[in-house]
Design brief:
mainly beta, Porin
């Protein structure tokens, strides 16, 4: 089923809900609360206490391009997505410790500016995921031994458990917002929201902030491209299997305060490191001659480390980050190498403590087995205005150098922004 193209109806529905939420919860509580729709007059809180948690969000990228390398070369596009989900906590519902069930879906709309005007590989609107209503995730999760061991199985999104980082969400370009863009582009079993595959994940946290995780997923290309709205549930071993292992360690993390107390701020500055390896079986198309080749392998490493924290604050300051994702088989990987790096400063402007300023540079090397080869580079500047806990506006500017590896192409200038509302 395709969603209607009358996007103003989405905005109208959102706007109509906001005054209702404010009246139900009181304007000040609503404005400083976690959700645009408030607590539903206390019903939402009661349901959460009982073990039923609802979630919803709307994200839109409104971007324009100058000197694009496809179509007319100039233009603009809307891309948007509504995400919705529910979690059932069976420890609260039925006394089964650590057991939960999660289900989610998405309504994607709009168009892809990179395809129609940009002519580049890294999508300049990260939120574009087609024009479908689909089931996203549907899985059961069991936490054991005071959350030391976590088991998850069902229809799952790989991005939730591997490679992703919260710091990437400060950008709009799809080269990094979510995960490095070459990994999902080359592996059918690595999915990003709102797509999912059959899979299972085992994660162990033997000491606090040290995590070992292994995931195994079906690698069905048709699951991502189908028109069955995410309900193609077949499981065929001939599709191949994607397997990934990751170790991550976070240090000097700010601990949440209990019973309304202030959070505990460590003396050292926080950081996070990840190392992962992955492989996928199944037939892959040779980029040069179109024949079949079996399997794909790769690894990734990422690091983020705060280098300056403003005095008396928990998380305001400057954090550099970097990530490398490499898949050595150029005969089957259009983008074998991705390198990303950037700076994020939270609270840069006085009295705007929740805002974030970000600079990022993304490099994708194209396979030597395709023409013209070369590399695509993106330089991005973004500023997130956190207007309420549930509402942000992110003005954004991107420069795309050598789009799709074409060194003779003009540098594309992309500008606009992202808007996000949590319902």
């Amino acid at each position: 089923m395709r969603p209607p193209r009358n996007r103003p109806l989405l905005w109208a529905a959102a706007v109509l809900m906001l005054p209702t939420a404010a009246l139900a919860d009181g304007f000040d509580d609503w404005l400083h609360g976690d959700y645009a729709t408030g607590t539903w007059g206390g019903l939402r809180t009661s349901l959460e206490d009982a073990g039923i948690t609802f979630e919803g969000a709307y994200t839109t990228d409104l971007m324009a391009v100058r000197n694009g390398n496809a179509g007319s070369g100039d233009g603009w596009a809307y891309a948007g997505r509504i995400d919705f989900g529910v979690e059932l906590d069976f420890e609260k519902l039925a006394g089964i410790a650590g057991l939960s069930v999660y289900a989610s879906g998405a309504w994607s709309s709009g168009s892809n500016l990179s395809d129609q005007q940009g002519g580049n590989l890294f999508a300049v609107q990260q939120v574009f995921t087609g024009r479908e209503i689909r089931l996203s995730q549907l899985y059961v999760q069991q936490r054991l031994f005071e959350d030391v061991l976590t088991l998850k199985a069902g229809r799952v999104t790989t991005e939730e458990d591997f490679l992703a980082s919260d710091i990437y969400a400060n950008y709009v370009n799809g080269g990094i917002n979510g995960v490095p863009g070459n990994v999902p582009g080359s592996n059918f079993g690595y999915t990003t929201a709102p797509f999912a595959q059959w899979g299972a994940v085992i994660a162990v946290e033997p000491i606090e902030h040290l995590r070992f995780a292994v995931g195994v997923y079906n690698a069905d290309e048709k699951t991502i491209d189908d028109r069955r709205n995410g309900t193609r549930f077949t499981l065929d071993a001939e599709d191949g299997v994607f397997a990934v292992g990751e170790v991550s360690y976070a240090w000097n993390q700010v601990e949440e305060g209990e019973d309304g107390k202030e959070p505990s701020i460590p003396e050292g500055l926080p950081g996070l490191a990840k190392l992962g390896i992955f492989g996928e079986s199944g037939d892959r198309e040779d980029l040069k001659d179109g024949g079949d080749k079996d399997g794909n392998v790769g690894f990734y490493v990422s690091l983020e480390q705060m280098v300056y924290r403003e005095a008396g604050t928990a998380d305001q300051g400057l954090t550099p980050w970097a990530v490398v994702a490499y898949q050595p088989r150029e005969s089957i990987n259009e983008l074998p190498l991705f390198v990303g790096a950037g700076l994020v400063y939270k609270g840069l402007i006085p009295d705007r403590d929740e805002d974030s300023a970000a600079i990022g540079f993304f490099y994708g090397k194209l396979s030597g087995d395709i023409n013209p080869g070369g590399s695509e580079k993106v330089l991005e500047f973004a500023y997130t205005l956190q207007l309420a806990p549930w509402f942000y506006v992110r003005p954004d500017l991107q420069f795309v150098f050598d789009p799709a590896g074409v060194s003779s192409a003009d540098t594309a200038v992309v500008f606009g922004g992202e808007i996000g509302i949590t319902f």
